[in-house]
Amino acid sequence: MSDQTLCAAGTSNLARECRDLAHLCEATSAASRELDGRIARTVFPGLVDLEELEIAVWRYGDGSRVRALRYSGEKAAAATLVPPGHWMERDANLPDRIWIYGPGSDDAVSARHVLEPLAISAACLRMHARLKGMSPSR
Protein backbone atom coordinates (compact mmCIF):
# COMPACT_ATOMS: atom_id res chain seq x y z
CA MET A 1 0.00 0.00 0.00
CA SER A 2 1.40 3.42 -0.92
CA ASP A 3 1.93 6.24 1.58
CA GLN A 4 -0.85 8.17 -0.17
CA THR A 5 -3.26 5.23 0.25
CA LEU A 6 -2.30 4.88 3.92
CA CYS A 7 -2.87 8.60 4.45
CA ALA A 8 -6.29 8.42 2.76
CA ALA A 9 -7.25 5.39 4.87
CA GLY A 10 -6.16 7.20 8.04
CA THR A 11 -8.17 10.28 7.09
CA SER A 12 -11.21 8.11 6.40
CA ASN A 13 -10.86 6.42 9.81
CA LEU A 14 -10.55 9.79 11.56
CA ALA A 15 -13.59 11.08 9.69
CA ARG A 16 -15.59 8.02 10.73
CA GLU A 17 -14.46 8.42 14.36
CA CYS A 18 -15.49 12.11 14.29
CA ARG A 19 -18.91 11.18 12.95
CA ASP A 20 -19.34 8.36 15.48
CA LEU A 21 -18.28 10.60 18.37
CA ALA A 22 -20.78 13.25 17.24
CA HIS A 23 -23.55 10.67 17.55
CA LEU A 24 -22.21 9.59 20.94
CA CYS A 25 -22.19 13.20 22.18
CA GLU A 26 -25.84 13.54 21.24
CA ALA A 27 -26.78 10.21 22.82
CA THR A 28 -24.98 10.58 26.14
CA SER A 29 -26.73 12.02 29.17
CA ALA A 30 -23.78 13.60 30.98
CA ALA A 31 -20.24 14.91 30.59
CA SER A 32 -17.53 12.25 30.67
CA ARG A 33 -13.74 12.34 30.87
CA GLU A 34 -13.66 9.18 28.76
CA LEU A 35 -15.58 11.01 26.04
CA ASP A 36 -13.27 14.03 26.40
CA GLY A 37 -10.26 11.75 25.90
CA ARG A 38 -11.75 10.14 22.79
CA ILE A 39 -12.54 13.55 21.33
CA ALA A 40 -9.00 14.80 22.01
CA ARG A 41 -7.40 11.70 20.41
CA THR A 42 -9.58 12.11 17.33
CA VAL A 43 -9.15 15.85 16.83
CA PHE A 44 -5.45 15.70 17.78
CA PRO A 45 -4.34 12.33 16.36
CA GLY A 46 -0.73 12.85 17.52
CA LEU A 47 -1.91 12.03 21.05
CA VAL A 48 -2.06 8.33 20.15
CA ASP A 49 1.75 8.35 20.03
CA LEU A 50 1.98 9.51 23.66
CA GLU A 51 1.85 7.41 26.79
CA GLU A 52 -1.62 7.57 28.34
CA LEU A 53 -1.24 8.05 32.10
CA GLU A 54 -4.93 8.08 32.95
CA ILE A 55 -8.20 8.90 31.24
CA ALA A 56 -7.64 12.01 29.09
CA VAL A 57 -4.05 12.60 30.33
CA TRP A 58 -0.92 11.81 28.28
CA ARG A 59 2.83 12.18 28.80
CA TYR A 60 5.36 13.44 26.27
CA GLY A 61 8.79 11.82 26.03
CA ASP A 62 10.30 14.68 28.07
CA GLY A 63 7.93 13.95 30.98
CA SER A 64 5.60 16.90 30.46
CA ARG A 65 1.90 16.18 30.40
CA VAL A 66 -1.06 17.15 28.28
CA ARG A 67 -4.65 16.91 29.47
CA ALA A 68 -7.78 16.92 27.31
CA LEU A 69 -10.03 19.89 27.86
CA ARG A 70 -13.48 19.17 29.30
CA TYR A 71 -15.16 19.27 25.89
CA SER A 72 -18.27 17.46 27.10
CA GLY A 73 -18.77 19.58 30.20
CA GLU A 74 -17.58 23.12 29.53
CA LYS A 75 -18.89 25.40 26.80
CA ALA A 76 -15.57 27.26 26.42
CA ALA A 77 -13.66 23.98 26.00
CA ALA A 78 -16.16 22.65 23.44
CA ALA A 79 -15.92 25.91 21.48
CA THR A 80 -12.19 25.29 20.92
CA LEU A 81 -13.23 22.42 18.63
CA VAL A 82 -14.64 24.82 16.03
CA PRO A 83 -12.33 24.33 13.01
CA PRO A 84 -10.22 27.32 11.92
CA GLY A 85 -12.14 29.64 9.59
CA HIS A 86 -15.50 28.28 10.77
CA TRP A 87 -18.02 29.72 13.19
CA MET A 88 -20.74 28.57 15.54
CA GLU A 89 -24.30 29.86 15.73
CA ARG A 90 -27.22 29.22 18.04
CA ASP A 91 -30.85 30.26 17.59
CA ALA A 92 -32.58 31.59 20.72
CA ASN A 93 -35.74 29.77 19.59
CA LEU A 94 -33.89 26.43 19.43
CA PRO A 95 -31.61 26.54 22.48
CA ASP A 96 -30.61 22.87 22.24
CA ARG A 97 -29.32 23.12 18.63
CA ILE A 98 -25.89 24.36 17.49
CA TRP A 99 -24.83 25.03 13.89
CA ILE A 100 -21.28 25.17 12.55
CA TYR A 101 -20.71 27.08 9.30
CA GLY A 102 -17.66 27.05 7.08
CA PRO A 103 -16.06 29.68 4.85
CA GLY A 104 -17.83 30.21 1.54
CA SER A 105 -20.46 27.65 2.40
CA ASP A 106 -24.11 27.90 3.29
CA ASP A 107 -24.03 24.20 4.12
CA ALA A 108 -23.94 24.09 7.91
CA VAL A 109 -23.82 21.04 10.14
CA SER A 110 -25.79 20.90 13.35
CA ALA A 111 -26.28 18.91 16.52
CA ARG A 112 -28.75 18.85 19.38
CA HIS A 113 -28.40 18.27 23.09
CA VAL A 114 -29.91 19.88 26.18
CA LEU A 115 -26.36 20.23 27.55
CA GLU A 116 -24.77 22.94 25.40
CA PRO A 117 -21.17 21.64 25.58
CA LEU A 118 -22.32 18.30 24.19
CA ALA A 119 -24.27 19.98 21.37
CA ILE A 120 -21.24 22.14 20.51
CA SER A 121 -18.89 19.15 20.60
CA ALA A 122 -21.19 17.07 18.39
CA ALA A 123 -21.63 19.83 15.80
CA CYS A 124 -17.88 20.51 15.69
CA LEU A 125 -17.11 16.82 15.29
CA ARG A 126 -19.58 16.66 12.38
CA MET A 127 -17.74 19.52 10.69
CA HIS A 128 -14.39 17.80 11.31
CA ALA A 129 -15.86 14.67 9.65
CA ARG A 130 -16.87 16.77 6.63
CA LEU A 131 -13.43 18.36 6.41
CA LYS A 132 -11.87 14.90 6.47
CA GLY A 133 -14.06 13.91 3.53
CA MET A 134 -17.01 12.07 5.08
CA SER A 135 -20.65 13.03 5.15
CA PRO A 136 -21.35 14.34 8.65
CA SER A 137 -24.88 12.79 8.77
CA ARG A 138 -26.66 16.11 9.42
What does this structure look like?
With 138 residues, the protein is of the alpha+beta class. It has helices at 3-27, 33-43, 75-79, 116-131; strands at residues 51-54, 57-59, 65-67, 87-91, 94-101, 109-112. A 3-stranded antiparallel sheet has the order 1-2-3, with no helix packed on it. A hairpin with a 7-residue loop joins strand 5 (94-101) and strand 6. The radius of gyration is 15 Å and the shape is globular.
Shape: globular
Radius of gyration: 15 Å
- Estimate the strand proportion: 15-25%
Average predicted local confidence, pLDDT: 88
Structural classification:
alpha+beta
Question: How far apart are the first and last residues' alpha carbons, in Å?
Answer: 33 Å
- The residue ranges in which pLDDT falls below 50 over 5 or more consecutive positions are 1-9
* Widest beta sheet: strand line-up: 1-2-3
Number of beta-strand segments: 6
Q: Specify the biggest β-sheet.
A: 3 strands, antiparallel
Element order: H for helix, E for strand: HHEEEHEEEH
**In percent, how helical is the residue content?**
40-55%
What's the helix count?
Answer: 4
Quick structural gist:
The protein is an alpha+beta fold and 138 residues long. It has helices at residues 3-27, 33-43, 75-79, 116-131, and strands at residues 51-54, 57-59, 65-67, 87-91, 94-101, 109-112.
